[in-house]
Write a structure and sequence with these properties.
Largest sheet: 6 strands, parallel
Bound molecules: zinc ion
Number of helices: 10
Order of helices and strands: HHEHHHHEHEEEEHEHEEH
Low-confidence stretches: none
Radius of gyration: 20 Å
CATH class of the largest domain: Alpha Beta
Oligomer: single chain
Number of strands: 9
Mean pLDDT: 90
């Protein structure tokens, strides 16, 4: 039996403790993650001024589908080192916290804007890669698929990755600028967002559409949103909880506060 004191304490809970309560009370929780969750893994957020590979070039030009088609050599000159850097990164405790919530039956799945495949590496089972993932690359001609570890072997002397079967251009299975988001992944993300009574937004500035529209779907269906992100987001005023500290510390505190 709950005492009056317990109830008062619960109602008064704030920060990570309040979020832990909301996660336990909700029937369906879904996470939406962005670049901020991978920063502790050593992957800089290209939106942070003065950081990351993106500051030296204009990503809108060089990581654009037109650049890949028109000048694959220049595209790979830029993209290959980025690809190699990402393939060596390991998940951090924030990724692990979400995997742990899923194992405990408290999280339906993770919708991520990140292409770094670190959620799966951390043990998350249901991951919706709405911007694609570096896990695989595909031939643009015959659709043959290559695993991340096999891609380095596809480069010829010209610095372009070519299909072993048909010599077609091989493209990473990530969404480049100028490309549409994968339809099936977005449909699954929208369904999860609409069915969630709590959307946990982690490390995303919630500014890049159409993904930034997902919390709106949760709110419109009567659900709540919680935000664990250092930066300000357009949803801050609508969030039931906003945690602005380090993502690892905040999610550790949430896990610690679970019953
Ligand atoms: Zn091919």
């Amino acid at each position: 039996m709950k005492t009056r004191e317990d109830s008062a304490k619960r109602a008064a809970a704030t920060g990570p403790a309040r979020l832990a309560e909301m996660i336990e009370a909700a029937e369906s929780v879904v996470a939406l993650t962005g670049a901020g969750i991978s920063v502790p893994s050593g992957i800089p957020d290209f939106r942070t001024p003065g950081e990351g590979l993106w500051t030296k070039v204009d990503p809108m030009k060089v990581a654009h589908i037109d650049a890949f088609r028109d000048d694959p050599k220049s595209f790979w000159e830029y993209y290959r080192p980025r690809f190699q850097t990402l393939s060596g990164k390991r998940p951090n405790r924030a990724h692990e916290a979400l995997a742990e919530l899923e194992r405990r039956g408290l999280l339906e799945g993770v919708i991520t804007q990140n292409i770094d495949r670190l959620h799966r590496a951390a043990g998350s089972e249901r991951v919706i890669d709405v911007h694609g993932s570096i896990a695989t690359s595909s031939c643009t001609f015959c659709d043959a698929t290559f695993q991340l570890e096999d891609v380095p072997g596809l480069f010829g002397e010209d610095g372009v990755a070519e299909c072993e079967a048909c010599c077609g251009l091989v493209k990473p299975d990530v969404v480049l600028f100028g490309e549409l988001l994968p339809e099936a992944a977005m449909a699954e993300a929208q369904e999860l967002a609409e069915g969630a009574d709590l959307m946990l937004c982690v490390g995303s500035s919630l500014e890049v559409y159409p993904v930034a529209g997902l919390p709106e779907l949760t709110l419109a269906a009567g659900g709540e949103i919680a935000i664990v992100t250092r930066s300000e987001t357009p949803y801050d005023s609508e969030a039931a909880v906003k945690l602005s500290g380090d993502v690892v510390d905040e999610l550790d505190a949430v896990l610690a506060a679970l019953r």
